[in-house]
């Protein structure tokens, strides 16, 4: 404790960075997941196939390599500069988006065709059927999966320290370099992630309980 | 785009890439074996009637999978540095314990999916509990969960790239090395991305194929 | 258009790939008329009724609803469907919406009614089908018979000119069939134009003006109700009746 307390402010602001990074990536990744999942679900020509290729590629490579693509490779290719923080946010969002896209697609597919038919029969247009029937049902059904992915993403954010983002893990390593108390620091770090992830999961459970679709 | 491609560096540094690839395969293989053993052990504990034993499994699963893999590796490599474990061993430990939690959940659900009567019937024929699990429950559970296990295996291969952070010379690490030597950033990272993609695709396809070829053995049981 | 039947089906044929599910079907439903469509399973009766509001496409012939051709390219199908209520075998209530929301969704989205207006209409219809106290419940909390009554209220909420029923009681337990048929009989008595696919021959005999008997994708008989029950013209019709009545 005597190494943690003096550095508490420093570590907590790292935790704040982690939380903001996770939140940005969760929101952006979810939006991307819905768009890509919808493109796959409706099998829009060209765009649907492009989405499929993107999803397959992203799901086939490690997160760390994906982050390196956004931090090193793409800026080198495009001749632009990007901060580690922005690269991490981009990388996480695009990475988690690919996984969420598949979850959304299976959620969208879980809606029975007869139910869509009934909605059409009442005069709803295809867009209205999607917006008011298919999407809300799919969203509710995948809340548990969604939050599993969010927890995964929260853990992922620790990898941002590797490209130099000063989030929780990065700051803990800095404190360790100064104080050299690796056991205390790493155990504290582990417990902090543990508590945050458990909290995130329990939010997910509460939401999925609240929004269960019973048939 | 002013970037001029030079893919020759890949061929030039093929030895680094080959070494990294072999290490990635070794790391993944060992990680898989230990994660499977741990997962079978804990998954079985999670399925027994003793509440105390089930708690052990629950605490393990919740702790191991809610801590980032990177921190798992740091734990062995930095926190327990005085043990002087080689980086490769730290990576295997971190990977196995982290992934073992996911395997535990899969094994538990597999065992739960085998009808209880199967275990009872095996005991009734005089098999001791361990043999009943070994010959009757596990084989059926394995068949049910093979797709999930294939998914976990590909996940573990991808996760092994984090070993590069504690200086294990696997594929991602070597990509960084080539990048440092040649500044061919894009070529190096895209090439290893494709290698991972190929490895993950092949492994998951092979595992799925194994399930399909064994499907014929399944007896269909009509319910009710 | 006063004398014209509400629904006209003229020489309609339909194929799934190379399999012919409807062959040269011709019939009509007049204003205020109740037509029961019956026949063995797989005879195409559900497919035919789903062609009427364009849920199923057909390849030959024409279907006109108040003179508008369902299968024509320029037809605004959502608009046409909004004018025809439909009730399904498995109710198809929206599982994520409350009972009242099930009834107000299309009112608000299609007819652009205000929330207050849609709620009021929804409550009135729920009271009419005897489920006034259920408006806040979720569909899964209701019995099958109650769900089907909500589905009828949902269809009526759009003030349809005609109602299509696709085996509305086939998925119900016997003790719930009556409550649904009672609502349907009431509707018929009020002069609603109805096309009903059903095996409930008692209902057909009491309520229907005409019976359309189908077999193997063809309309085999299309006669006055009494004529069908007392003296079916076709061998298949007699066969069907004897099976279903002795059941």
Automatic annotation (TrEMBL), chain A:
The keyword Cell membrane applies. GO terms for cellular component: ATP-binding cassette (ABC) transporter complex. Keywords: Amino-acid transport, Cell membrane, Membrane, Transmembrane, Transmembrane helix, Transport. This is ABC transmembrane type-1 domain-containing protein. One of its GO terms (biological process) is amino acid transport. It holds the Pfam family BPD_transp_1. It comes from Rhodobium orientis. It is a multi-pass membrane protein. It comes from the Bacteria. Gene3D superfamilies: MetI-like. Belongs to the binding-protein-dependent transport system permease family. HisMQ subfamily. The chain crosses the membrane at residues 12-39, 51-74, 80-101, 150-168, 180-200. It is found in: Cell inner membrane; Cell membrane. NCBIfam families: HEQRo_perm_3TM (TIGR01726). GO terms for molecular function: transmembrane transporter activity. Residues 15-204 form the ABC transmembrane type-1 domain.
């Amino acid at each position: 404790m005597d190494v943690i307390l003096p550095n508490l402010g420093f570590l907590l602001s790292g935790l704040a960075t982690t939380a903001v990074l996770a939140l940005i990536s969760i929101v952006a990744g979810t939006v991307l997941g819905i768009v890509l999942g919808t493109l796959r679900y409706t099998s829009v020509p060209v765009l649907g196939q492009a989405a499929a290729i993107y999803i397959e590629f992203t799901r086939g490579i490690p997160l760390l390599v994906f982050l390196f693509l956004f931090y090193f490779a793409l800026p080198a290719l495009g001749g632009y500069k990007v901060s580690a923080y922005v690269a991490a946010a981009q990388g996480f969002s695009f990475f988690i988006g690919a996984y969420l896209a598949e979850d959304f697609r299976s959620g969208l597919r879980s809606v029975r065709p007869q139910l869509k038919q009934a909605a059409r029969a009442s005069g709803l247009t295809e867009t209205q059927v999607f917006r008011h029937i298919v999407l809300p049902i799919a969203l509710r059904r995948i809340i548990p999966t969604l939050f599993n992915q969010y927890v995964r993403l929260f853990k992922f954010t620790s990898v941002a320290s590797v490209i130099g983002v000063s989030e929780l893990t990065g700051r803990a390593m800095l404190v360790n370099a100064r104080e050299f108390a690796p056991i205390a620091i790493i155990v504290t770090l582990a417990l902090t992630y543990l508590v945050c992830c458990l909290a995130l999961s329990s939010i997910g459970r509460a939401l999925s309980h609240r929004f269960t679709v019973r048939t | 785009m002013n970037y001029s491609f030079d893919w020759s560096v890949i061929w030039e540094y093929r030895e680094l890439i080959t070494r990294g690839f072999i290490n990635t395969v070794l790391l993944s293989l060992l990680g898989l074996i230990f994660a499977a053993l741990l997962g079978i052990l804990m998954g079985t504990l999670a399925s027994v009637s003793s509440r105390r034993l089930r708690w052990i499994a629950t605490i393990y699963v919740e702790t191991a999978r809610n801590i980032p893999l990177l921190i798992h590796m740091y734990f062995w490599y930095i926190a327990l540095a005085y043990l002087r474990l080689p980086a490769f061993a730290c990576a295997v430990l971190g990977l196995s314990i982290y992934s073992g939690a996911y395997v535990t959940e899969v094994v538990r659900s597999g065992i739960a999916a085998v009808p209880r009567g199967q275990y009872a019937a095996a005991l009734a024929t005089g098999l001791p509990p361990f043999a009943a699990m070994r010959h009757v429950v596990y084989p059926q559970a394995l068949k049910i969960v093979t797709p999930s296990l294939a998914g976990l295996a590909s996940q573990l291969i991808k996760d092994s790239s984090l070993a590069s952070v504690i200086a294990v010379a696997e594929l991602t690490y070597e990509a960084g090395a080539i990048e440092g030597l040649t500044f061919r950033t894009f070529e190096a990272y895209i090439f290893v991305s494709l290698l991972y993609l190929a490895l993950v695709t092949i492994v998951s396809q092979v595992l799925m194929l194994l399930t399909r070829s064994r499907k014929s053995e399944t007896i269909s049981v009509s319910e009710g | 258009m006063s004398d014209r039947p509400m629904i006209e089906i003229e020489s309609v044929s339909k194929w799934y790939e190379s399999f012919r599910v409807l062959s040269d079907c011709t019939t009509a439903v007049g204003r205020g008329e109740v037509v029961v469509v019956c026949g063995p399973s797989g005879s195409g009766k559900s497919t035919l009724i789903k062609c009427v509001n364009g849920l199923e496409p057909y390849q030959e012939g024409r279907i006109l609803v108040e003179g508008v051709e369902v299968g024509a390219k320029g037809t605004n199908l959502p608009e046409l469907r909004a004018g025809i209520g439909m009730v399904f075998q498995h109710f198809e209530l929206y599982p994520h919406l409350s009972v009242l929301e099930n009834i107000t969704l299309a009112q608000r989205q299609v007819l652009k009614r205000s929330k207050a207006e849609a709620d009021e209409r929804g409550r009135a219809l729920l009271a009419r089908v005897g489920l006034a106290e259920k408006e806040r419940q979720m569909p899964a909390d209701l019995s099958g018979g109650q769900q089907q009554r909500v589905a009828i209220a949902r269809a009526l909420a759009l003030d349809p000119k005609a109602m299509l029923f696709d085996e509305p009681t086939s998925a119900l337990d016997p003790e719930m069939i009556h409550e649904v048929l009672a609502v349907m009989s009431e509707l018929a008595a009020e002069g609603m134009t109805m096309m009903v696919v059903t095996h409930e021959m008692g209902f057909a005999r009491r309520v229907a003006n005409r019976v359309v008997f189908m077999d193997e994708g063809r309309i085999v008989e299309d006669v006055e109700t009494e004529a069908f029950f007392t003296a079916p013209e076709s061998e298949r019709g007699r066969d069907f009746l004897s099976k279903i009545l002795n059941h």
